[in-house]
Amino acid sequence: MTTTRRTLLLAGAALVLRPAVAMPEEMQAAVRAFVGDARPWPDARITLDIAPLVENGNVVPLTVEVDSPMTGNDRVTAIALFNERNPQTEVAVFHFGPRAGRARVDTRIRLATSQRLVAVARFADSRVAQAAAEVIVTLAACVES
Amino acid sequence: MSTRTLIHLPKSARRGDVVEIRVTLAHPMETGYRNDAEGRRLPRNIVRRFECRYDDGLVFAADLFPAIAANPYLAFSCVATETGTLSFSWRGDHGFAHTESVTLEVT
Q1: pTM
Q2: Which domain holds residue B68?
Q3: The complex's ipTM?
Q4: Chain A interface, mutation test: which of B77, B78, B81, B87, most A Cβ atoms within 10 Å?
Q5: Which CATH number fits the domain that encloses residue B94?
């Protein structure tokens, strides 16, 4: 493929979009409290499954799963969930014992508004990895009343 | 007030099987960020910790925050190793504590 104007434009768009991945400061602090000095990199083995368009922010089903054999260094010991724009950044921290078998959790959460969710997984060798999902909420979880 | 829970898991499993466990607890999970009709802040009342143990070995635990919906629901899994007791415990604000046990038969 030759370098056309279109591919150049796409490359440019990708460069411009990158800073949008940056997290707000509060979320960064909460993630740091969970991972310490380690730096979580995006990892395709983590799936954060949530409907992209949510009608009722009071009850939002969510599944987080890490494709892991759950043995040795690849065993997932914990997964933490964070949000950008609820009053509190933490959503939940899940801990997996040696008998958990699978690194997968289903739960239901509240979302105050449209925002991004981040899942951070910690492995037995203290490696960390993350995945994110964008959610649009039409009826917010009632914060005021 | 009695505490209501729903715990779903198979009665029996083969050794080495990964068993799915689903638990729900009836609880308001009041966030502490809402006001009542008179504008007074409703005090926070949430479940902060859930633990599942299998013959005292920790299988799964969760630290919960106000962003967890009312009647907290969790589904997770566990490797069936031998016939034993699975215990489920919830702890929360204002001294909330509740424990349930279920026997899992492993063949």
Answers
A1: 0.87
A2: 5-34+44-106
A3: 0.94
A4: B77
A5: 2.60.40.10
